[in-house]
Design brief:
5-stranded parallel β-sheet, alpha/beta, about 190 residues, binds adenosine-5'-diphosphate, Rossmann fold
């Protein structure tokens, strides 16, 4: 059993790397942002939830934890996962550990893509032309980066203490970053 979490600020390339790793290791790609956008689009979630995304704020833990638990439990035991955008708070991290622990599944390794805030911001602005995401505008990107720093980045300490953290320089091009991830994963397995 082999599960991964891809971690890092918005713009670090989590989605891109997660897709590659999903193929390379046959993992089920779980993007909490994508799941939220889909559920809102299909009217499975209150449209009001959209206001969190549009403002760059985290949706409430209770909501995302319930949603993710349901999705994970549907697949648990059938597939291995790569989580992208989840967890983003300590509560979320603990919930994930709990689910895996209950099923005696080895806790996920965390791949942290490291990137300076300024570069992350420039990348999101550059992709915003094609992304069609209402939260890819300067003010909201800044808010997302701020929340990452304040609420999400502290999780790195939680994972480092548990010896589950793999740090990766997120600056080089897509393939180079992928190579570095593969090399470091191999050393851990
Ligand atoms: P990015 O990582 O580029 O910010 P995502 O698609 O992962 O983009 O997330 C978009 C938005 O979805 C977030 O700003 C937040 O509003 C919401 N969201 C996604 N994942 C979570 C989560 N784990 N907890 C709370 N809110 C989330």
């Amino acid at each position: 059993m082999f599960n991964l979490i891809i971690f890092g600020p918005p713009g670090a390339g989590k989605g891109t790397q997660a897709q590659k790793l999903a193929q390379q290791f046959n993992l089920y790609h779980f993007s909490s942002g994508e799941i939220l956008r889909q559920e809102i689009k299909n009217n499975k979630l209150d449209k009001k939830i959209n206001s969190y995304l549009n403002a760059g704020k985290l949706v409430p833990d209770k909501l995302i934890i319930t949603l993710m638990r349901e999705k994970i439990e549907n697949q648990l035991g059938k597939v291995n996962f790569i989580f992208d955008g989840y967890p983003r708070t300590l509560k979320q991290a603990k919930m994930l550990d709990k689910i895996f622990n209950e099923k005696k599944i080895k806790p996920a390794l965390v791949i942290s893509l490291e990137l300076e805030e300024e570069i992350a911001l420039q990348r999101i602005l550059a992709r915003s032309k094609d992304s069609n995401r209402s939260d890819d505008v300067l003010k909201v990107i800044k808010k997302r980066l701020k929340i990452y720093k304040k609420t999400t980045a502290p999780l790195l300490k939680y994972y480092a203490q548990k010896n589950r953290l793999i740090k990766i320089n997120g600056r080089p091009d897509i393939n180079q970053v992928n190579e570095e991830i593969l090399t470091k994963i191999k050393k851990r397995r």
